[in-house]
Design the sequence.
């Protein structure tokens, strides 16, 4: 039997509630498909500040580095907002991303027919949308140097940020894009601004070169401004989008809001070695509903499905979890965030149990 160790970091707010449900789904999927998942739970974020004075201890970082994958809930909350930025809960996330070398962020946006009303767009525009944004996470405009604000001799100020990419950085993110497309509908769109920005001209050239090794994947290109427009005009045209850090930040938020339901959206951050990946819902710790047992665990459960697909090559198990979620929704199970007046509302635990029952 295959054996994998998972660092489970529930974090703050609703984190422990949603991760608890997702962990059961992971265990059950393992049992069904002949894999043993050893779950090692540890404190992160505000919970770690309360216990240890820092958002991420060396011990927990070490656990994450030694594990085959990390499952994270969410960190942060009003309780820690007065703290200095250097020891805020969110620093734990940045440190984990950096130390694990997570350079690719995968954010799918899929519309479930049962939740089509949750979107602000017309049903006919979004029905059937199933896309994935692959965002470069450690380079580009957010990290390039020189950066900063300087005062000029005449007393005015000058702000600078620089978009920088090297060929190896583009190659590795392009490869992730092609590999992800291979596991989906085999269409990759590379988004750049090659008509204006030289850095992205290089981006396009390198992506085309990498694409020669992926003849089974259809590669196309689009300028970022057009892509932003097309995402709301006709989002069904997209399968996988690979793009620069800042562009990806904006486009992935835009894409996720097509679905209108933050409690449904998973994510993965992937590094250069096979066991370096972190899976987490895109939402935060939702302090407004923490402890009430009403959070939606689906984003975290779907993050587990991504883990099975992208870290452990367990596509069948991954698909089964996705199908279980779809089936539970079609049977009318709804947590408060996706419910409508007149519908029975399930708790976090009831939703988790329903997915688990479907899976079994
Ligand atoms: P949030 O995502 O926590 O919540 C926004 C709204 O969505 C809230 O009304 C919340 O109740 C609702 N919501 C979120 N997830 C839900 C779920 N699973 N089920 C039902 N409803 C859900 O964003 P926020 O309120 O801006 O941030 C709260 C805290 O979380 C802050 O401290 C912030 O820094 C932190 N945060 C952490 C992460 C992370 O850990 N990755 C991401 C974003 C925000």
Sequence:
């Amino acid at each position: 039997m295959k054996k994998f160790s998972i660092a489970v970091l529930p974090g703050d707010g609703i984190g422990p509630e949603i991760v608890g449900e997702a962990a059961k789904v992971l265990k059950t999927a393992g049992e069904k498909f002949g894999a043993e998942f050893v779950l090692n739970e540890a404190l992160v974020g505000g919970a770690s500040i309360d216990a240890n004075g820092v958002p991420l201890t060396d011990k927990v970082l070490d656990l994450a580095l030694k594990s085959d994958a990390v499952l994270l809930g969410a960190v942060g909350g009003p309780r820690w907002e007065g703290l200095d930025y250097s020891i805020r809960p969110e620093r734990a996330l940045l440190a984990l991303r950096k130390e694990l070398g997570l350079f690719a962020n995968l954010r799918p946006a899929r519309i479930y027919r049962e939740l089509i009303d949750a979107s602000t767009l017309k049903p006919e525009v979004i029905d059937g949308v199933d896309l994935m944004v692959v965002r470069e996470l450690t380079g580009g405009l957010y990290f390039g140097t020189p950066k900063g604000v300087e005062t000029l001799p005449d007393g005015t100020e000058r702000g600078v940020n620089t978009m920088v990419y090297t060929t190896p950085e583009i190659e590795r993110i392009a490869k992730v894009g092609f590999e992800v497309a291979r596991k989906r509908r085999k269409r990759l769109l590379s988004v750049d601004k090659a008509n204006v920005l030289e850095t992205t001209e290089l981006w396009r050239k390198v992506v085309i070169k990498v694409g020669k090794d992926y003849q089974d994947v259809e590669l196309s290109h689009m300028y970022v401004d057009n892509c932003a427009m097309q995402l709301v005009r006709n989002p069904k045209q997209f399968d996988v989008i690979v793009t620069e850090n800042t562009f990806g930040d904006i486009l992935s938020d835009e894409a996720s809001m097509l679905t209108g339901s933050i409690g449904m959206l998973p994510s993965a951050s992937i590094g250069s070695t096979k066991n370096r990946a972190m899976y987490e819902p895109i939402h935060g710790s939702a302090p407004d509903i923490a402890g009430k047992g009403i959070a939606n665990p689906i984003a975290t459960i779907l993050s587990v499905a991504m883990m099975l697909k992208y870290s452990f090559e367990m596509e069948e198990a991954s698909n089964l979890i996705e199908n279980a979620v779809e089936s539970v929704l079609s049977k009318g199970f709804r947590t408060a965030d996706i419910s409508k007046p007149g519908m029975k509302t399930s708790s976090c635990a009831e939703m988790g149990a329903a997915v688990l029952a479907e899976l079994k």
About this structure: The chain has two domains: 1-112+262-360, 130-257. The mean pLDDT is 95. Residues 14, 18, 74-77, 90, 93, 262-263, 280, 283-289, 295-296, 299, 337 surround nicotinamide-adenine-dinucleotide (CB under 6 Å). The longest strand covers residues 2-11.
